[in-house]
Amino acid sequence: MTDEMIRAEGVSMRFCRGLETGGTLKQAFIDALSPARRAARGQHSDFWALRGVDFTVRRGEVLGLIGPNGTGKSTLLKLIAGVLKPTEGRIALGGTVCPMIELGTGFDLDLTARENIYLNGAILGYSRDFLARRFDEIVAFSELEDFLDAPLRGFSSGMTARLAFSIATVVEPEILIVDEILSVGDLAFQAKSEARMLRLIGGGTTVLYVSHALSSIRRLCQRVLWLEGGRVRAIGEADEICEKYEHAAQESVMNNENLKLNN
Amino acid sequence: MSVTARLGALSARYAFLLQQLVLRDFKVKYKRSVLGVGWSLLYPLLTTAILSLVFSNVFRFSTPGVSYVAYLLTGLVFYNYFSEGSNLAMSSILANGSLIGKVYVPKAVFPLSKCLSSGINFLLSLLPLYLVLLLTGTGLCWQHVFLPWACGCLFLFTLGVGLLLAAAAVFLRDIVYLYGVVLTLWMYLTPIMYDVSIISSPLLRAAIALNPLAQYIGFARTVLLLHRTPEAGQFALCALSAIGTLLVGLHIFRCNQDKFYYYM
Fold first, then answer.
1. What are the distances in angstroms from CA B216 to CA B14, B48, B123, B183, B220?
2. Chain A interface test: which of B100, B262, B263 (most A C-beta within 10 Å)
């Protein structure tokens, strides 16, 4: 079907937890000298962040992604953004992806704001023409006209965040990945940036939206995917899934309370 | 050739990103220094001055028939490019670890951009080299048109080694330190300060003959100092070692790039 923008089929992702300890010559020696220890390390470290995840997202649909911490939401976003490759299964995309996961990665503090707009834009995959056309818009939105030729080193964190947000959100992507609504800067800029995010989400692009704020999920998403323990717990109409999720969360809190009382 | 074709396609699609990365490296390199780009010209001259003082006066090295200073600088300019380019390319993946975990970028652009930005430096250092060629009375000749062959081979070779090291350094950080030592050894196994004729051990001679850097430097010296057209064998050997190394480096990099993320 041409109308499908994201199709995940049996996507599984395995991480090796022990890897942080490896990567040095010392570890390589230890492993070489003691195969038993190496095998033990290998068994301990396997960890499936996602297991057999299937879903599709149609063009223009806003799919919410919910679930407790550590259930693989960010991993799923990284897989769709192409940063990671699934251990099993496959992901097919029907358009360009703009990952809006973390702002400002790839800024160079020694370069000016102007130079960073081009560098960061290039990293995010914008073309030279696109950047040239939208340069003024980026600058105007960030309200940093007066600091355009100052190196980023001297910027406050709020100014840097404003610049990053302005660069990241001028896009017209076909698939937009949003990990929590980003609102940065002071109060006035927060309102402005939130309005822009809402416009992007509501503007007919296909969106994958992760949030713990169920109210905004209900407001923005048509459908919701509930991940738990790396598997799809439920997928369906937003209100319905959110209700079930809330119910389950309350129940687990109550169970915990009961346990404490009984002890 | 399909691998080089793919590398070409990659650089065409990401030409803008590549250009921005190279520009960044170049701008940042001399930021806040008074002489700025002047250092690219001055640095090879100053090291040559010191080395030629030490080796021609203290150790009494000489290169009959050609100027020792010109001989030395030719070798240094080539070696410096290799040393700088491969070193920067080696750490380029580690240095951009946070980026690689967040945005999809073809990972080979990082080592490639480092080899290119060092290339700008290399081209600039050709200016003092030509200055020395003129001042020492070595002079110019039409055979200089062959010099880009040596430069191109040097670039491909450095890129190949850089890709290999960049991938290896992700899995084994010790490579970064180890390579510093290897580079020192490599410098002495390359006839930069001495002429191969002073080496008597046949084993050492064979090692030098197989050393790609020695091949490129030898090629450049044939053109610049002896004013001769290199032999067909020299052309072939240079291209062979350069393209061969690039293919090996590219293959190892491509086979491992999906695993980088886990080791950052």
1. 29, 19, 15, 17, 6
2. B262
**Fold of domain A4-96+214-262:** Rossmann fold (3.40.50)
pLDDT value at position A243?
A: 93
Helix axis angle for B2-13 and B109-135, nearest 10°, is 90
Q: Does A80 touch chain B (CB under 8 A)?
A: no
Asked if pLDDT for residue A56 goes beyond 60, the answer is: yes
Q: Which domain holds residue B81?
A: 2-263
pTM: 0.86
Q: What's the farthest any 2 CA atoms get from each other in chain A?
A: 66
CB contact under 8 A, A108 and B258: no
Structural class in CATH, domain A99-170: mainly alpha
Total domain count, chain B? 1
Chain B residues in contact with A15 by the CB 8 A cut-off are 262
CB pair distance less than 8 Å for B20 and A127 = no
Question: Which contacts (CB < 8 Å, 24+ apart) does range B137-140 have?
Answer: B137/B67, B138/B66, B138/B67, B138/B70, B138/B224, B138/B225, B139/B227
pLDDT at B26 over 90: no
Tell me how close the Cα of A3 comes to any Cα of chain B, in angstroms: 24
Q: Which of B17, B101, B170 sits opposite A83 (nearest CB)?
A: B101
ipTM of the complex: 0.83
Contact A19 B263 (CB under 8 A): yes
Give pLDDT, residue B211: 96
